[in-house]
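your task:
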Amino acid sequence: MTNHEQPRDSRPTPARKTESDKNSHPVKSRSEGTETKGLTLQQGFQLLAGILIVVALVVAFVMFRPSAAQDATTTDSASSAASASGSGSGSRSGSGSAGESIEATGKTTTAKVAVEGMSFTPSDIKVPAGNKLVITFTNTGNQRHDLVLSNGAKTPTIAPGDTATLEAGVITSSLEGWCSLPGHRQMGMSLTITMTGTGAMSGDSAGGSSGSTGSDSMEGMDMGDSGSDSDSTNDVDTPTMAALQKQAKKEKAYDAELTTLDNKKDRYYTLTVTEGTQTLSDGVTRQVWTYNKTSPAPTLHGHVGDTFHVTLVNKGTMGHSIDFHAGQNNPKTVMKTIDPGQSLEYVFTASHAGIWLYHCSTMPMSNHIANGMYGAVVIEPKGLSDVTAQYVLVQGEMYLGKNGGAADANKVASLIPDIVTFNGRAFQYDAHPLTARAGKRIRIWVLDAGPNAALSFHIVGAHFNTVWKEGAYLLRDNDSSGMSSGEAASQALGLQPAEGGFVELTIPDAGSYTMVNHIMSLAEKGAHGTLKVTK
């Protein structure tokens, strides 16, 4: 800055000081006084921070010591368990989790298990590790059950009201339990035995927490369903179409012809339940449950107003029942499950026309139907047209389990059948065709027995001139509402499970006409046959 640019200031300019003067005579200016005060605050903050650090270290040390002691105890326990598991001798009876060896405590836990609907109660039983478990199983349900554990212990199958004792042995791991009757596990009849504590803990403390002593009882705790079965693991391979067709040629076909109806008003039948074996192809069989040793069961036939007197006899090994859709009855009186060796009288009056399903109504119904327990009741409506032949086709489904065994209930629940049939055997009416005469009217009654799949009944190369479904004509003699006389026809009769109807048709030319479920994947599984028309 030049002299003439200096600011106006009346104060004298201080003399320049040497470096030695600065050090020996500090100037106590306002700015320097502030700087001295800042240094003092900084020192205070540093002191406070130091105190806080010391306090934090002390607290951490105090908290650390119990944790360290606990860790040491855990380590010692783990080391002891590892050491024990290495010997496998003495009173040790098995292994728990993580390689621990479980010692028998000499104590017994007792539990009471009952049946509620299609479930066990309680569904979870807690047992201290090393305790012996004894279960008193009372069947408070309405059909036969058993109790099987994953360690192989089991009760016999017992009737409603009966009691069995199951000795499960020393509990060295958690176990699963279930009813082994077909389909019962999938319906929810399973339970869990939960091992609590370890072998070293199965003394007073574990016993106190579980309610167990030297010989006391416990009811367990209901923790819900324990899981599903794995029946599908060893299921037999489904036979090929060629193998099913080959077997159909060997077997006598189910008689599909509907007999001529008489004028009786009271009709008497005895239906006997048995359990047998059906050959599906070379080396492949399945267990079947049937009425009168046929599946479908015998077709009952009558007029509106007829009374049916049916005696049901159970000669099987489990509970069974029957439900006639053609009747209107209180289910609790006539559809109840009866045990092997028992019988039941079922009386109903056919108040309405149609083709009606009857089937076993014992739970799980889907499995009993899939094992073959179904049939048809045909109640003819008044004013039917004259025909030269009448047939009954009932669609059924198979869900193969183990070879020679009952249906796989897991597959049944999946809704995808392995085999689909007309009258109980795949492709049988290709091997043994139904017959008709060219230019002559025939009637085919059709019923979908389920339990799952739909049916779209179609005859390749033919038209239906009359279609009747679930109590009403959809088409009659080629006449339909809104159409000119003679112009209407139908190509298929669509049915859901438990629905039925009939079709009438007149085929003008001789030949072989294929009958199918037009859900083609199901036709390819066996819902397929032939109507052979001759001149």
